[in-house]
Amino acid sequence: MDELTFRSKDRFRWSWHFAALVGVAAAAAGARIVHDFGAAGLAWAVGGTAVLALPSLLLRGRWSTVGPSGITFHRPLARRGRTYPWHEIRWLEVYGTDRRFGEFRTLQVHFADGRSRFLSGLVQDRTHPSPGFDADARRVRNWWELSTDPADRVRPPKKFLDLPTSQSVALVALLAAGTALPALVLHYW
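Request: output the structure for the sequence above.
Response:
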């Protein structure tokens, strides 16, 4: 099988309404700065924004490589990535959640020491469309299954943060507020 590479910056696309919103906001801010501080103020604002934006542009673009040696997570400005051999990987699963603006899915990698990471670049959501997400996740899973013993594939137990849903968290918060508020009123009355 061929080595697989997933790069997040290759899948990102700007939506037209977001780009228009950023453009209108930048034009309004620029007009206000020119009105209040003149051309020199605008030059300082543009230069300061460029200086602050430069690190974020340099540090974006994590990627992952899946191959015979395991899964390698690459970071920007690093010479080499961190490779996790197949025998250290205990479980792979598709992590999905519904967000306000649509569904988000990625591949979650669970390690023998209990930690887990998301596979950089293999993402499907509105800003990272990936029509072949399921096929790519299946290809990674095939690498894992061919490179590990079935006895070593252990599904991790659910952690506390994995269990509650937003409704159960809201219910617990409401119950806590409902019991704390009368206690505070009676205490200070």
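The radius of gyration is 24 Å.
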